[in-house]
Design goal:
Layout: H1 3-10, H2 14-25, H3 34-46, H4 66-74, H5 87-101, E1 105-106, H6 108-117, H7 120-125, H8 135-149, E2 154-155, H9 157-163, H10 173-180, H11 184-201, H12 207-212, H13 215-235, H14 245-251, H15 253-262, H16 272-282, H17 287-303, H18 311-321
Parallel strand pairs: 1-2
Length: about 325
């Protein structure tokens, strides 16, 4: 569109005209992704005031933006900041709206069971995580169930159990923690659950890429345990000697957290409970075993880009090698 056409659609604005002119001089152009296009089409189909132009942007909005200020002056800016605390409430409201539109009854117990099966309940109960579950993926599963139930049908917990495959959880850190605790079978199951969840959200991506996402979380866990062993050596401490949580929290947690942060092994000081888990895990590893695990992870990463062993085989073999 020309600048004149855009201005005519949005209403006269000298500031907006200057913004458009500057954008074109810099070689920039407006674009809209597939997801935004679908949202725009849905809004246009479901209604709106005659002659209204809807300008949408998906994603986080900056707090201080001249562009958003201009749009707000000549129209409206709507924010939808979904956080962990409000997630389940918003999920219920959205499912109820979809069910009402399709003349389907979606039991409250079925909503909770769907949250359990999709790994949402476990993700939200993880007090160390800041992850917000994917609302669209869960709604997509709910709509699929409504389609199966048909008009005037009912969706209950039994139907959810029968139709939706369970996902054990979405917290990636749990995979590294299970490996560190040498719980090989549990770690393998967690890996497959995480990959299943990843494929559900992005079914078009190759399986090797889905598995490859978990190479670096595992490598981070190994590096942090090496950091614990290094800290113990510097402080001349015996990691193999038992130490209960309260004693660890009072005497070592703060110093160990600062040590790992100073070495850039963590982004921020971990909670004392998480640090104690790493301290306990360090008791069962030697530095040679950990360096070998890092070498294996590097080889898997290199091999998946050069036709070597697939990440699926490589990571599962590594997890099984840590079995007690």
């Amino acid at each position: 569109m020309t600048d004149a056409a855009i201005l005519d659609s949005l209403g006269e604005s000298r500031t907006l005209a200057e913004m458009l002119s500057l954008a074109r001089l810099q070689g920039k152009r407006a674009s809209r992704g597939e997801g935004d296009a679908a949202m725009l089409a849905e809004a246009a189909t479901r209604g709106g005031s005659p002659g209204t132009t809807l300008l949408m942007r998906s994603g986080q909005l900056p707090d201080d933006s001249a562009t958003i200020d201009v749009i707000a002056k000549i129209g409206f800016v709507v924010r939808c900041d979904l956080d962990r605390d409000a997630f389940l409430k918003v999920l219920r409201v959205e499912i109820e709206a979809e069910a009402a539109e399709r003349s389907v009854r979606f039991d409250a117990g079925a909503v909770q069971r769907l949250a359990d099966r999709m790994g949402i309940t476990r993700t939200l109960s993880d007090k160390f995580s800041k992850e917000v579950p994917d609302l669209r993926a869960t709604l997509s599963e709910a709509v699929r169930l409504m389609t199966l139930a048909g008009e005037n049908g009912t969706i209950d917990a039994k139907m959810v159990d029968a139709q939706v495959g369970a996902i054990a959880g979405g917290a990636r850190y749990e995979l590294g923690g299970l490996f560190a605790e040498r719980k090989a079978v549990e770690a393998l199951q967690k890996l497959r659950d995480l990959v299943a969840q990843s494929r559900r959200e992005d079914p078009k991506t190759a399986i090797d890429i889905h598995y490859g996402k978990f190479l670096f979380p595992l490598a981070d866990e190994v590096r942090q345990i090496l950091g614990v062993l290094s800290f113990a050596r510097v402080r001349k401490l015996d990691v193999r000697a038992p130490m209960n949580y309260n004693r660890f929290k009072d005497s070592l947690a703060d110093a160990l957290g600062g040590y790992l942060k100073d070495l850039d092994l963590v982004r921020q000081r971990p909670h004392p409970f998480a640090l104690h888990k790493k301290w306990e895990a360090a008791r069962s590893f030697t530095e040679a075993e950990l360096w070998e695990a890092l070498r294996s992870l590097a080889a898997i990463e290199s091999g998946r880009k050069s036709g070597g062993v697939s990440p699926e085989v490589g990571i599962e073999a590594l997890l099984l090698s840590a079995k007690r």
